[in-house]
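Incident review: delayed structure delivery

Summary: a single-chain prediction request sat in the queue longer than the usual turnaround. Root cause was a stuck worker, restarted by the on-call engineer. No data loss occurred. The affected request and its eventual output are reproduced below so the record is complete for anyone auditing the incident later.

Affected input:
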Amino acid sequence: MTPEHLLKEADRCVKCGLCLPHCPTYLKWQSEADSPRGRISLLQALAAGELRNSPGMERHIDRCLGCLACETACPSGVRYGQLIDGGRALLNQQRPSRQRWRRVFDLLSDRHRLDRWRSWYRLLRRLRLTRLAALMPSPNMRRMAKMGEQLSDESQLLSGLHPAALPTGRLVQLFVGCVSSQTEQPLIREATALLSRLGFAVEIPEAQACCGAIHRHNGFPEQADRLCSENRRLLQGSRAETLITLASACQLELSTHLDSPLPVTALADFLLDLPAGSLAPLQPLQQRVALHTPCTCHDDRSRQLLEQIPGIDLIELPENGLCCGAAGTYLLTQPEASISLGSAKIEHLRTSGAEVLVTSNTGCALQFRQLIQETGLRVEVLHPIQLLLRQMKA
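Output delivered after worker restart:
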């Protein structure tokens, strides 16, 4: 987004303030500069050359979660997501030192590099050196080291062609993502088994790239577009009928920017759209389950899927409309704010009496698991598909 395009879109904001009650950072800090209309005003001044880039401006722009709750509330239809992404790209152009974060994002978005880093981290864990992370001076590095505890112990990437259990001749491609390929390997394996059981061969290309959301939302659109191009090339050479996603953030990014030659579908939606009776009878579940709706899930059909489980006590996690603080890389770039926002969710989870929390977003799952462990709660965090498959196996 050029400064001219940024100004044109920003001018659609009439500064009415109807977004304020929906903005988690405004509710937290009660600062106009940390509200959607305040950030838009800052970006307008920056793009027009009326204000210079400064640490204070960057702090307010970077503290935005990008949850887009303000877009839903906006009567003028301002595309705030494009504004904040474009504004960060402008900041990156004006101050090259911000490029240091791109190296971190390049690591997180590369499945193979992340796999090597995971192997190195496992060695440090075996040597009991990971506890030294608490001594790191940077809160960003301390949070990253703690999150490293959730890296899978499995030694290889899940890729290749997985045959169907039934001879239907149908093929789908499964999008496993970057971070999720290292933290959600049980989910990927279980989703593959479920699709195979339903008669679908599953393709997971070795060369599959990150969806690009990590780079795009941090102001590096060229890298995001390059990753989209790599994935589009893979899809053009595939015989698959659908690209199936597991993480809501990947689903949103791919459906918005990929320009895919195949339909892009969340696994929950794919299962719900199958002919009636396709899923095996589900066993009853006598547990209270809290459903977390990620900010990236504008039409979360997980509830509709989970309600098919007999006996389930399914509740909405209170304040589902407010971000949990994960927000992609926000849990690493803004660790203190992320933990503060997440702690409010953990308190809601504690009082809910839920034994299981389900969420369809990888970052949200990482955030919840970390904070649940630190607070000593006994709550299991699962993807909706994992809970569904568990009741099929019971």
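Verification: The first helix runs from residue 3 to 10.
Action items: add queue-age alerting; document worker restart procedure.
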